[in-house]
Write a structure and sequence with these properties.
With 367 residues, this protein is an alpha/beta fold. Among the domains are: 133 residues, NAD(P)-binding Rossmann-like Domain (Rossmann fold, 3-Layer(aba) Sandwich); 91 residues, Rna Polymerase Sigma Factor, Chain: A (Orthogonal Bundle), CATH 1.10.1740.10. The protein contains 14 helices and eleven strands. The strands form two sheets. The chain has a seven-stranded parallel beta sheet, sandwiched between helices. Strands 9-8-10-11 form a four-stranded mixed beta sheet, covered by helices on one side. The protein binds NADP nicotinamide-adenine-dinucleotide phosphate. The site of NADP nicotinamide-adenine-dinucleotide phosphate has 29 residues, from helix 1, strand 2, helix 5 and helix 8.
């Protein structure tokens, strides 16, 4: 039977690459969600003829082909009957649709790391109640997921996430003057603007550490980060006996997306015979130059709603940097200040939304 998939964020980097995978595999795309790029959304609708569609921007239903229904929210599309939901709306805006997919008992192919960072335990509780499951799409978490297949959890000593180091690994020395254009030019991956800036500050890796803790239930002190500029080793697991397993492959997100959607099968792809790289290096991250990583560990140790505050402050600060309102180095300054002021609340759905609103308001004042 053809697999029925829903894509949340279909016009973005992960969304369009998911549609490539759907073309490779002949998946039936039954639901699409986009933000404001209506032209591309309508093109996708014409090609894939989904059953339901939603856009954050106003979409005139008369522009849709017969049989395609415009619904009232992303959450409605997320809960539509499907075998898998690809969650690729960035930021906390992606949380409600992820939650709707979980409550509908779906397999969630999770790219939206921010929802797992902010609401991990709460989402798992609802997933257990409703029979939903998560398969990671983020390449590092996909790698760890693949390394853990068939391994008893008590044998795991540590998770080692690789990071390319971003566009500023080797310079310039003064990061306060870098422009959004420079920060968006990631050396290895072609991604959306939010995750590209997060990669330049290394906040992306910090969020991924918190995502890995929530996804794999491994304590923070057993999750490490190593800089690996070639981005060919996507991550590693070290076992108690000292042996390591790594997952390697071309830097192409379509492989991780297809793995999440076809797990445990490995159908062939057009990338199946890429040549091996000649050099693989690993080095320690520079935590003075890139304080974001330490901030994420700090938020993780604080627990409760601190990761929610970290995420919200970062979203506001990244957007302020992209619109030229603050320098690059102020992104982590805003996050650090907010974490120092963060309310100490346990993680509940109410506290999550309260802390998120507080952090966005306070970060807005600071920027
Ligand atoms: N790109 C990667 O290689 C990569 C790798 C690992 C993880 N991720 C994670 O995957 C997620 C998506 O990243 P991306 O790079 O694909 O982002 P992106 O290129 O910026 O795309 C975002 C998508 O979400 C839609 N969107 C944004 N806000 C929305 C809203 N409020 N309601 C409905 N739709 C909305 C956008 O629609 P419009 O464009 O129509 O406005 C677009 O389709 C992020 O959480 C990121 O951290 C990405």
């Amino acid at each position: 039977m053809t697999k029925r998939i829903v894509i949340l964020g279909s016009t973005g980097s992960i969304g369009t690459q998911t549609l490539d995978v759907a073309r490779w595999r002949g998946y039936q795309v039954v639901g699409l969600v986009a933000g404001g790029n209506l032209e591309l959304l309508l093109e996708q609708v014409r090609e894939f003829q989904p059953e339901v569609v939603y856009a954050a921007a106003a979409l005139d239903p008369s522009q849709l082909p017969a049989g395609v229904q415009l619904v009232g929210s992303a959450a409605e599309v997320a809960a539509h009957r499907a075998d898998a939901v690809v969650a690729a709306i960035p930021g906390l805006a992606g949380l409600e649709p992820v939650r709707a997919a979980v409550r509908a008992g779906r397999l969630v192919a999770l790219a939206n790391k921010e929802s797992m960072v902010a609401a991990g335990d709460l989402l798992w509780r609802e997933a257990r109640e409703h029979g939903a499951s998560f398969v990671p799409v983020d390449s590092e978490h996909s790698a760890i997921f693949q390394c853990l297949v068939g391994e008893p959890r008590e044998g795991v000593a540590e998770l080692i996430l690789t990071a390319s180091g971003g566009p500023f690994r080797e310079g310039p020395a003064d990061l306060s003057r870098v422009t959004p254009e420079q920060a968006l030019a990631h050396p290895r991956w072609n991604m959306g603007p939010k995750v590209s800036i997060d990669s330049a500050t290394l906040m992306n890796k910090g969020l991924e550490v918190l995502e890995a803790r929530a996804l794999f239930h491994v304590p923070l002190e057993r999750i490490k980060v190593v800089i690996h500029p070639q981005s060919y080793v996507h991550s590693l697991v070290r076992f108690r006996d000292g042996q390591l397993k790594a997952q390697l492959g071309p830097t192409d997100m379509r492989l991780a997306i297809q793995y999440a959607l076809s797990y445990p099968k490995r159908p062939p792809t057009p990338l199946a015979s890429e040549p091996l790289p000649s050099v693989l290096n690993f080095e320690e991250p520079d935590s003075e130059r890139f304080p974001a990583l330490s901030l994420a560990y700090w938020a993780g140790r604080m627990g409760g709603v601190a990761p929610v505050v970290l995420n919200a402050a970062n979203e506001v600060a990244v957007s302020a940097f992209l619109s030229g309102r603050i320098p690059f180095t102020s992104i982590t300054r805003v996050v650090a200040k907010l974490l120092a002021e963060a309310p100490r609340l346990e993680l509940t759905w109410d506290n999550l939304y309260q802390a998120d609103a507080w952090a966005r308001r306070r970060a807005g004042e600071l920027v």
